[in-house]
Amino acid sequence: MAGRSRPTIPWIAASFWPTDDLPKNPFFAKAIVNRMWRNFMGRGMVEPVDDFRLTNPATNEPLLEALAKDFIAHGYDSASSDRNIAARGRISFPESDEIQSR
Q: How many CB atoms lie within 10 A of CB 40?
C-alpha cells in the first residue's frame, strides 16, 4: 500500500509484495477470484488453483478477467464477489427421482 514503509527483514518484506500496489498486481485479484470460484464450483478456472503460468491458461479467461475486475471495482470485497460468482455459476442438480432410480 502506498505510504507504508517496508520492513528490512527479507522474508517479511516479501510478504508485503502481493498487497503493496494491488491495482498494478495482475495476479492477486485473479488468484483470489479463482479460489472463490473453486470453493463454489469444486474446480477453479485455473487448475492447480495457484498455477497462473502463461502455459496454463484459464478455462474461461474472459470470465476470470471480468470477475477479477469486479473484485477490484468493489474494493476487494469478497461478499460482493461471492454473490457475483453465485449468480454466474449456475449449478444444476438432478431431480430426486433421477437420484433414486440410480
A: 13
One-letter amino acid of 25: N
**Could you tell me the residue range of the domain that residue 58 belongs to?**
23-89
- CA distances for 19 relative to 30, 66, 81, 89, angstroms: 13, 20, 18, 28
Please list, residue by residue across 58-75, b when 16 or more beta carbons sit within 10 angstroms of its beta carbon and e when fewer do: beeeebbeebbebbbeee
11 in any annotated domain:
no
User: Chunked in runs of 10, what are the mean pLDDT values of the chain (102 residues)?
Assistant: 60 65 75 92 90 90 91 88 80 49 48
In-domain check, residue 30: yes
Domain assignment present for residue 83? The answer is yes
- What pTM did the predictor assign? 0.66
Query: Going by C-beta distance under 8 Å and a sequence separation of 6 or more, which residues neighbour residue 49?
Result: 31, 34, 35, 38
Whether 18 is in a domain gets the answer no
Indicate the number of domains in the chain. Answer: 1
